[in-house]
Amino acid sequence: MHNLDDYPFEIRPLTPVEGGGYLISYPDFSECISDGESVEEAIANGHEALSAVIAALNSKGLAIPKPNSGGVASGKFVARVPKSIHAQLTARAKTEGVSLNTLVLTFLAEGLGRRVHH
């Protein structure tokens, strides 16, 4: 059995023209993508899609890629921030009713989705 959480994913906001929400993709599975209205929904839908892809590969007797076989990062890192920012993030996560991890992931996804204009 494969642990779906071991597979790294990339997530980005979709533009209004693309329908809005967030797109999730898995570098280890080039054809495995999904989306959702929120980051959390995109991750949940991505897990369903990944599970289906792994089941299809199993049923055909094909090899299942190992996590990070695409040569990408593990998806985990430690970020050191000032205590004041940590406190602000923690308070904001509590106010929004989400985990600190989800809040930071949302901020990162939104920030990475912005286009840089010079």
Key features of this structure:
3 helices; 118 residues; 2 domains; Double Stranded RNA Binding Domain; 42% helix; single chain; alpha+beta; three-stranded antiparallel beta sheet
Q: Can you walk through the features of this model?
A:
By secondary structure, the chain is of the alpha+beta class. The protein has 2 domains: 1-73, Double Stranded RNA Binding Domain; 78-118. Helices cover 42% and strands 14% of the residues. The protein has 3 helices and 3 strands, in the order E-E-E-H-H-H. The protein has helices at 39-59, 83-96, 100-113; strands at residues 10-13, 22-26, 29-36. The chain has a 3-stranded antiparallel sheet. It is globular and about 50 Å long.
Present the secondary structure layout:
Layout (H helix, E strand, L loop, with lengths): L9 E4 L8 E5 L2 E8 L2 H21 L23 H14 L3 H14 L5
Antiparallel strand pairs: 1-2, 2-3
Helix pairs in contact: 2-3
